Amino acid sequence: MKNIYILVLFILLLVGGLISQYYLRKESNDLAWHAIASVHLERLLVIDGHINESIVKTRYNLENNYDNLAANVRAFSDEIKALVKHMHARPEISLAVQEDIDRLRDAYENKKDVTENFKSHNSVLKNSVLYAPTVGSELIKISSQVPEGEQFSQYLSELNTNVLKYSHSTFEEHPEVVTTQFNELNTQDQSLPVIASIAYSEFSNHVQTVLDEKPFVEQYLATALLMPIADQVFGVKSHLDGMMLKAAETGQQVNYFTIAYFSVFALSVLLLGLRFSRANGSIATAVESRTRDIEAEYLKLKEASENSDADSQLSASDMHAIHAMDTMVGNVSRNIGSLQFRVIEMDRFFAWVKKLSDTFNHENVDKAKANELIKKVVIYYRDLARRKVFDEVHEVLKDSEQGLQDVKEQSAGLIKREVN
Amino acid sequence: MRVKTKYGALTTFLFLIIHTAFALEPIEPIPLVQDVDPSKVALGKRLYFDQKLSSDGSISCASCHDLDSKYGTDLLPVSTGVANAKGTRNSPTVLNSALNFRQFWDGRADTLQEQAIEPLTNPVEMGLESMQQAVAILSADNDYVSQFAQIYADGITPTNITEAIAEFEKTLMTVNSPFDQYLRGDANAISAVQKRGYQLFKSYGCTACHQGVNVGGNMFQKFGVLKDINLRDAQQQVDLGRYQVTKNEWDKHVFKVPSLRLAVKTPPYFHDGSAATIEDAVNTMIEFQLGREVPVEDRDAIIDFLSSLVGDLPEI
Question: Are residues A208 and A331 in the same domain?
Fold first, then answer.
């Protein structure tokens, strides 16, 4: 009899064990399920951040094409698909979570549209901005030849028309933004030629002040040039870091990568040196000597890659690294060339402004008003872009962030409820 | 970026000038290697050239996207499919199409895989009734059955068919163009005129739209941004492009900006094949997309630059 009790006890223990096993496993399955959902959401937030960053960067020419932006939008879409698939893999998801997923998906669709809209508007805006200096310089040239500056307003109106054309095809829904801007500008139209001439002389005084503070200009030029390059250098460098690590682990091709690594490192040090140098003498000379240094470094790099173990097969990722380095060095040398060119152009530009200020300085007009105007001309392009495009982008950003946050909270809540 | 506020307008102006000049190149070289699965590529290649996959056995993908001398197109204004049926759009090149952010002139397919369903089942292209018919045709062929089985556990399915085709298309890159070599640092890879053409291509603003690794293919734009496109040759533009997909008013006459990598090799031009020569096409761009006037020698230098974008045909 005793044996039977022991047997029953044993069976009870066994059943209890099995049942708790079952619950434990179910719970840990749940945990895994939620953990994966959280990972997807985390990634969505990160990619969303990348998209926003790209939008701002492409707006201000810190990124010079939309490939990155497009790739991130694609990544976002893939991630959402993965999340939805994961969520639906479990039959009993709560209604609240389902609604949040739907909201998130809507927000994404909306954001995709706005991103597309932003891209096309931003491109045309850039062309308008590119065109403005051309028209502007034309207009100054002519008005300096004709003292009354008759053609001035004609050209300015051409500029206006162009921008208006642009805005019609972009800000269809909010024409008042554009109209207000132009009404403001037009109220001053009568006195435009005179005011503008004075504005430019005021402008030239600014330039003179800046020229007196030359280190600022140098630093500005160097920074503007080097920021994007430095970004890239460090991108390649971290790539190489990874490859070095791999090479060290597998004991392969260490030689070649050591050399490549140090060449690129030397290059980046040189570039940073240039960025922080307050070169004595003209910038052009400094740039020229740096260019020679960089070219020498590049030759070393090339040689290193050619002398690397000829027998060892280059893997796809090696090829990618070489491709990245070549492209980077190409960028560096072309940018240096363009800096030299720009320096010459800037010199001409300053000389030209100086001449202009000499021509107009004796005129007797309200300088404050003139200043106001010139500020407007420069700023209104920015406003055009910011107000509409950015308002729209901003709203959608908020929307999609809210959607993500909601889903995150819901999913966190679920985890808590079900775990407790 | 450090900006001293005290200089106000000037700093802003300098910022515009300098930043436009110094940002990285808007065009990037095509990577020399692609990560693909060789067995899927082999299968996809076979499917790409197989005329069996059409309703009358006369048409394959290659009929409209010839990978040899025609650089991935048919060089016709609009394509001809089964039973000589005419489509309404110009066939874009499949070469480098994996680099495009969406597929088709109106971007209605997100990926190459999604895209491939359409020609197979389009009545004026390959004319199959459904993807199931494609599965049936291939299932009757023992070679295909075993080739699919080696790669896919679930054998011949619509998804696997389109995936294999897409994988093959990813290998169709024209790498190493003279311009790519130039971007990688070989200053002598392109001529002086081509260099000037590239500067003009940037300074006139072509790169605002034709940019990125595929020199296009990464955004939508209105055809006729600065001048009503209906004014061109008094031709009414019947194809509303992306509007047909989204029904948004502002998407009328909006198309995917096409890649210019092989433009000099693939006339005629535009979504409807309405420009016969590259000169025509660029003139239209200058007038309707830029709203500017450009001297003929500048235009020709730009075209000369475009010819430096042509890379090696892929080995098939």
Answer: no
Which chain B residues touch A316 with a CB distance below 8 Å?
Answer: 33, 35
CATH number for position A289: 1.20.1260
Q: Do A293 and A395 fall into the same domain?
A: yes
In chain B, residues with a C-beta closer than 8 Å to the C-beta of A224 are 1, 15, 18-19, 22
Q: Which residues contact B219 (CB under 8 A, 6 or more apart)?
A: A66, A70, A116, A119, A120, A123, B101, B209, B256, B257
Which domains are assigned to chain B? 38-169 (1.10.760.10), 178-307 (1.10.760.10)
Nearest CA to CA, how far is B83 from chain A (Å)? 37
Q: ipTM score of the complex?
A: 0.86
Nearest-by-Cβ selection for A298 from B1, B185, B226? B185
Q: Is the N-terminal amide bond of B268 cis, ω within 30° of 0?
A: yes
**What would the pLDDT profile of A340-380 be if each residue is shown by its tens digit?**
554 454 444 444 444 444 443 444 444 444 444 444 433 43
What is the domain extent for residue A317?
Answer: 250-419
Write out the catalytic residue numbers of B.
125
Distance CA B205, CA A123 (A): 9
A369 and A292, same structural domain? yes
CA A32 from centre of chain: 36
Nearest CA in chain B to A200: B10
Distance CA A44, CA A251 (A): 37
Count of structural domains within chain A: 2
Q: Rounded distance, CA B157 to CA A244, Å?
A: 43
A289-327: pLDDT as tens digits: 555 655 565 566 556 556 555 444 555 555 655 665 566
- Tell me, yes or no, whether A126 and A181 share the same domain: yes
Q: For residue A3, what are its two tokens?
A: 């044996």
Closest to A240 measured CA to CA, from A223, A266, A258 = A258
Contacts of A221 in chain B (CB under 8 A): 18
